[in-house]
């Protein structure tokens, strides 16, 4: 497991250690074996760490002494301080951990099983979206006379035109960009170990060719596709670009392009899906292209109704 995850987990082993060596081993196996996605592991590590720290502060002496009342009180307190989705995610993490401990016969019952999370229903996503003019403005504002510019345009273009999650994009290798039927395709490893392949939009095809050829990495098949820039050299390194660095890059590029919308890594996925649907695409096809298991998830990225709302607001002629 990664260093930051180890710190999150090991800093909160007091209550677990009090239950004995078997409980400690089962607890560590939960993060090492049960959760395979790195981001989920980190999020669940933080959630469980916060819960165990709360329990310790309220006098709980062992993880085997946790009761439904403790879980309910923690979630109630959390709901007053944080958003409903955050509370529901933390409850899910606690529930999954204790399910694992029940199966391992560390605790007899799951104390979180009967605890209800806060009510929360979402029909419209919160992710900020760029309209097509803004997206084009951002792409055109990038200086592509440098390796960093070629890389950044290719990454942003990939997320827009292929509806790719930033994590999947940054996990790609050079060999994941390939030719099939005389067209460039991309191979993605999405959440849950799902492999997903997409043909490239002609604009994206141009961006990727320019990046691979212009930076001389086309032959490094096993190397990371998106790489860091070396300090002092302004050339690509062999190290993969981290998600936090991609976010910082997007903030710089957005500011330089004069775009006022506060956006993040996920904005481009929502921007691409909305543009596709506005131009006659179907929700079912969009779900397949985005590798969503359900069209309900895809609907969260569909922001066409925003324009309808804006038109109606402008009818208030005062």
Task: State the gist of this model.
The protein is mainly α. It is built from 15 helices and five strands.
Distance between the termini: 60 Å
Q: Profile the largest sheet.
A: 3 strands, antiparallel
Amount of helix? 40-55%
* Alpha plus pi helix count: 15
C-alpha Rg, in Å? Answer: 23 Å
Tally the beta strands: 5
Average pLDDT figure: 85
* Topology-level CATH name of the largest domain: hpI Integrase, Chain A
Which structural class best describes the helix and strand composition? mainly alpha
The CATH homologous superfamily of the largest domain: Intergrase catalytic core
Q: At the first level of CATH, what is the class of the largest domain? A: Mainly Alpha
Please state roughly what percent of the residues sit in beta strands, choosing from under 5%, 5-15%, 15-25%, 25-35%, 35-45% or over 45%. 5-15%
Quaternary state of the chains: single chain
Task: Describe the 3D structure.
- With about 325 residues, the chain is mostly helical.
- It folds into 2 domains: about 100 residues, DNA polymerase, domain 1, CATH 1.10.150; about 170 residues, hpI Integrase, Chain A, CATH 1.10.443.10.
- Helix content is about 55%, strand content about 10%.
- The protein is built from 15 helices and 5 strands.
- The protein has a 3-stranded antiparallel sheet, with no helix packed on it. The protein has a two-stranded antiparallel sheet with strand order 4-5.
- Strand 4 and strand 5 form a beta hairpin.
- Helix 4 packs across helix 6.
- It is globular.
- It starts with a helix and ends in a 5-residue tail after the last helix.
- The N terminus is likely disordered.
